[in-house]
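A common beginner's mistake is to predict each chain separately and then try to dock the pieces by hand. The better habit, illustrated here, is to supply every component at once so that their relative placement is modeled jointly.
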Amino acid sequence: MLSLDLIRNQPDLVRQAIARRHAGTPLQAILDLDTQRSRLLVEVEALRAERNRGSKEIARIQPRPPHLIEQMRIVGDRIKALDVTLDTVQRSMDDSLALMPNLPNDSVPDGPDSSANAVVRSWGQPRSYAFKPKPHWEIGPALGILDFERGQKISGSRFYVLAGPGAKLQRALIQWMLDFHIARGYREVYLPFMVRRQVVFGAGQLPKFADNLYHDAEEDFWMVPTAEVPITGLYAGEILPPDALPIHYVAYTACFRREKMSAGKDIRGMKRGHQFDKVELYKIVAPEESDAALVRLVADVEAVAQALDLPYRVVQLCTGDLGFAARESYDVEMWAPGCDEWLEVSSSSDCGDFQGRRANIRYRPAQGAKPVFVHTLNGSGLALPRVMISIMENYQQADGSVDIPKVLQPYTGFDRIAAPAA
RNA sequence: GGAGGGAUGGCUGAGCGGACGAAAGCAACGGUCUUGAAAACCGUAGUCUCGAUUUAUCGGGACCGUGGGUUCGAAUCCCACUCCCUCCGCCA
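With all components supplied together, the output reads:
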């Protein structure tokens, strides 16, 4: 959520910043509605003041003055009528405001879509192979650890089943990543995978992205598309005490996304399922800390890829590719020699006070000081399926087996996955 | 799923429809006292919002789980919802 004050006082600045996102917004409607709203508010509050005075007067006079009571009844009716109008105006203003995306930082490069994203650095050398590296959708099934057909049989397209050492590899990765981040100062939280509507709104996924979410109509539960959603909800409506920040969380959750995109290269294999696992990093910080926090967050994400010894590059998202709530984002993309492409395994974003304002999370900088909205940041650390892909494809051997990265071996209990003897 | 009870400020906890933004206690902050601290005493204290002087004040409005309603007037009465607690049933 953007600050209404900012929209009111610097509409041109807001207009220009939003234009950089190459997206339409209801800015003008908000400004018009706001003018209307203040007019109505002044009027209705004056009437309320009158009624409060009158009611106190009535209480004081004995016997009760019927004339004054009648007069206040009329005032009351006018208040009620104005309230109805005010409520309508307020509601459509809130609706419009809820559709305003965050403003990109000045440093974010301009661009209409992902084609304008900029690679800011790379790490590691893609391995060279004496054979043509296979894609994971061949490696996995050949090893008997990945079953697309049966996944589809039980749940439809875009689902798969991991089995044996494949399933254990993913579990080892989750466990290892959690431990890895805990050692770097994050606190683990285990969260509900289904949350209330209000929580999804607070993180910015509603109302705009309802189409991409799974939803239980009977209880109005929403399946989390990322741990970012329930974590943002954790402190909603609270004022945190001065010493509470920074808060660093790491959480493992399953993630559920409708992802209506059609079949093709982008969703082949395990690349983009309706359900996937993710270890997520999340920071709640004081406003002046968020820039530095983003740098460290991306470094924490990169450290995972480095520990796994998987080549990756860091990409800064341009204005047009930025998420709704983000003001600056960096993706980490791992090299997948079988797919022959860079796969996005993480996206780290600084949301500024956008989510803090939307979910009403504030903190008090010092005893007695006025509360301010917190800044929030999130980054995947990392998304499991694509890391699985990257491991299978990077660590594949000529004989079809897959080596396990060193750091994971204590967690898997084996150092390679070989095809079962025929 | 059934039957009851509850939700008030940072916490505990009062609150006959008008005197209640809300007693009291605790915690907090400032001060007095003290060599310092504790104790004691005095004082200050919530959030949001509108307007006027213009950045410090002054005045108004709203907020007692949420949303409606009754009333000149609601923390207080009525309805719905949410959450919590107790008991029964069911269940990993």
